[in-house]
């Protein structure tokens, strides 16, 4: 039977919602409105001269080959981060769910990376893979591979993907462990009695029942790859070599704070916000149909 809450007064629900509405208005709608307004203007670096240019900033963006190239870089980076982040977390969650003794210690160790700041994560992975002092790059050279993320574009992309996945997989791991623990053990035991092996039990019982969790994490990881990985890119590669790891959010920062193109940077932020909103709507509109609640 569906249970519904009835408030005695019509204003009480709005009072309860007011703190969250204020936070959303101040920290999302107000900055978004300011960015949209600035994207239609052109101003100098100090904001002393403002000129209304309409859609000229957007036209300039889509004639800029470096900006168009950042779309490809962002798409590649986001897909790799979302796929490997979710896949690695799911594998570790399945293993952790089967651990008997010391399960709490294993789970605690796997959660720790989430406490590391993104900039620190980028610096740590840069040190490990630095051509001159990195212990991992030294091991790779001994194995016959000349690793240099400062000069090789593929190596630089691999570096920031690994750092971003390592930073986020703890978050994914927590949700997958919670999802696995919510699956009735009787289903797993019944399948085992019927002769289903671990692999078959996972694909026919556990993974379908984890589809709501997987869908939620897919949305969160796509947003994470588009927005929250700026500090990793800035600390590890600074968009280099060249512009080969300059994802869209990093280009917004570089053009706005380094190149001092405030109008163009605001236009890029509007485009980036529209892309993320569009991807989220697409996922809820089409991908969610395959989710089994």
Automatic annotation (TrEMBL):
<dbReference type="InterPro" id="IPR000515">
    <property type="entry name" value="MetI-like"/>
</dbReference>
<keyword id="KW-0997">Cell inner membrane</keyword>
<feature type="transmembrane region" description="Helical">
    <location>
        <begin position="109"/>
        <end position="136"/>
    </location>
</feature>
<keyword id="KW-1133">Transmembrane helix</keyword>
<feature type="transmembrane region" description="Helical">
    <location>
        <begin position="156"/>
        <end position="178"/>
    </location>
</feature>
<keyword id="KW-0472">Membrane</keyword>
<feature type="domain" description="ABC transmembrane type-1">
    <location>
        <begin position="71"/>
        <end position="283"/>
    </location>
</feature>
<dbReference type="InterPro" id="IPR050809">
    <property type="entry name" value="UgpAE/MalFG_permease"/>
</dbReference>
<feature type="transmembrane region" description="Helical">
    <location>
        <begin position="12"/>
        <end position="30"/>
    </location>
</feature>
<keyword id="KW-1003">Cell membrane</keyword>
<dbReference type="Pfam" id="PF00528">
    <property type="entry name" value="BPD_transp_1"/>
</dbReference>
<keyword id="KW-0813">Transport</keyword>
<keyword id="KW-0812">Transmembrane</keyword>
<protein>
    <recommendedName>
        <fullName>sn-glycerol-3-phosphate transport system permease protein UgpA</fullName>
    </recommendedName>
</protein>
<feature type="transmembrane region" description="Helical">
    <location>
        <begin position="209"/>
        <end position="227"/>
    </location>
</feature>
<feature type="transmembrane region" description="Helical">
    <location>
        <begin position="77"/>
        <end position="97"/>
    </location>
</feature>
<comment type="subunit">
    <text>The complex is composed of two ATP-binding proteins (UgpC), two transmembrane proteins (UgpA and UgpE) and a solute-binding protein (UgpB).</text>
</comment>
<feature type="transmembrane region" description="Helical">
    <location>
        <begin position="266"/>
        <end position="287"/>
    </location>
</feature>
<dbReference type="InterPro" id="IPR035906">
    <property type="entry name" value="MetI-like_sf"/>
</dbReference>
<comment type="similarity">
    <text>Belongs to the binding-protein-dependent transport system permease family.</text>
</comment>
């Amino acid at each position: 039977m569906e249970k519904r809450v009835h408030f005695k007064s019509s204003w009480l629900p709005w009072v309860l919602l007011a703190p969250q509405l204020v936070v959303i208005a101040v920290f999302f709608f107000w900055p978004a409105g300011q960015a949209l307004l600035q994207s239609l203007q052109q101003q100098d670096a100090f904001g002393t001269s403002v000129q209304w240019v309409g859609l000229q900033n957007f036209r300039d963006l889509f004639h800029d080959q470096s900006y168009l190239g950042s779309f490809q870089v962002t798409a590649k980076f986001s897909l790799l981060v979302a796929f490997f982040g979710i896949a690695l977390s799911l594998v570790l969650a399945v293993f952790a769910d089967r651990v008997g003794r010391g399960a709490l210690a294993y789970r605690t160790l796997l959660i720790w990376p989430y406490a590391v700041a993104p900039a620190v994560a980028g610096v740590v992975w840069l040190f490990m893979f630095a051509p001159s002092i990195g212990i991992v790059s030294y091991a790779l050279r001994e194995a016959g591979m000349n690793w240099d993320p400062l000069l090789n574009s593929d190596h630089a992309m691999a570096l920031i993907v690994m750092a971003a996945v390592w930073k986020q997989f703890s978050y994914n791991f927590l949700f997958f462990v919670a999802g696995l623990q919510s699956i009735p053990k009787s289903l797993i035991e019944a399948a085992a009695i019927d002769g289903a092996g671990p692999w078959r039990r996972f694909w026919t019982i556990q993974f379908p029942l984890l589809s709501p969790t997987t869908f939620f994490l897919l949305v969160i990881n796509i947003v994470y790859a588009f927005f929250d990985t700026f500090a990793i890119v800035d600390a590890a590669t600074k968009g280099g070599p060249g512009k080969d790891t300059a994802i869209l959010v990093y280009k917004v920062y570089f053009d706005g704070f380094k190149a001092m193109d405030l109008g163009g940077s605001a236009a890029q932020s509007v485009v980036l916000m529209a892309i993320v909103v569009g991807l989220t709507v697409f996922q809820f509109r089409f991908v969610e149909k395959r989710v089994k609640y």
